Amino acid sequence: MTTATLSREATDELANAAEFVKIIETKRHRIEPRFEKFHAGLQRGIADASEQEIALYRPQLSALGDEIDNCLNNIQGAQKVLERLQGDRAVLDAAFDRVEAMVRSVADARKHMTGMATRSREIEAEVVRALADMKKSTVAAEADLGALQSQVKFLARQAREFDAEATKLDQAARKAFDRKDQKTLTDSRNQLIDLLSLREFASDMRHRVEKFRKTYPDLDRERKAEAQWMLDDIERAEDIAHRIDKLGRELVALGQVPREEKKAATPKFGQAEVQRVLLTFGLPASDSGKRTKALKIVVECPVDQWPRELGKLYGTKESELKGRMGDVRKLAFVKPLMLIDI
Questions:
Q1: If residue 204 lies in a helix (H) or strand (E), which one and from where to where?
Q2: pTM check: above 0.70
Q3: pLDDT digits (tens, 9 = 90+) for 91-110
Q4: What CATH fold (topology level) applies to the domain 140-254?
Q5: To 5 degrees, how large is the angle CA 323–CA 292–CA 316?
Q6: What is the CATH number of domain 3-137?
């Protein structure tokens, strides 16, 4: 049997089914590439936590959902027509291949359209959750930002106060040094060093602000600017801390207030004392000429140099005389000389 022998009603049904299939295929070819584009865009927006990308693709995919529903309605209509054709033995005998091709085309279109409808619902649920998470993140960012701004504001105020105080302490310390006022110099120096707590405070705040920026990488332009302003304030505080540290180092370099040293009175040595020194060293004391020279050595030279100079005078090894230095130092009139040498 051929289609030419079919009834007019059956021929119309075949034509009607073919028109349905043509409409479905046309819509499918229009819908599928746009769906994949908008779906992929939404996935990127969710992955990047980008409200802007979500706002771009979400309404497009939503509008496409209406076209998918419309196409599914066409598919239902085509299925009903094809069911009637499949129930007509004459049609199957005359046009089985045509009916088969249309049934397969409609089934494949239905599979893809229902799949896109399901994926559209699923990604919409993901969008809702992602936006809720982003909203929570925004609230948390606002709370953290507010706390940081308060702390940085306190840091900036403290830095200004410490800067002024450091200048006063530096001036007071230098005047104290000129006046030889050791107590004021020491107190000013210690107070200046205490101000270096600003350095640790500034370092801690920089770490917190940098951590804030890493925790919330997708801040809007306004919040990013506020974070940068905080870093600018921290940098100014760090500069002030560096200046305070420099002043402190300069004051430490001044050292102690110089004292007027009283010259120790040179002990009076006579022939008797020199004679005892010579005898303790094991040197002859009978030669009055050498004894006079020995007196000059003992009076003018430090105690530790006696073995060398007396050794030269008497032609004795320095090492031998050094071996007797312990006994020489024990002499009552030599002990004061040891203190003077120190």
A1: helix 197-215
A2: no
A3: 888 889 999 999 999 999 99
A4: Methane Monooxygenase Hydroxylase; Chain G, domain 1 (1.20.58)
A5: 30
A6: 1.20.58
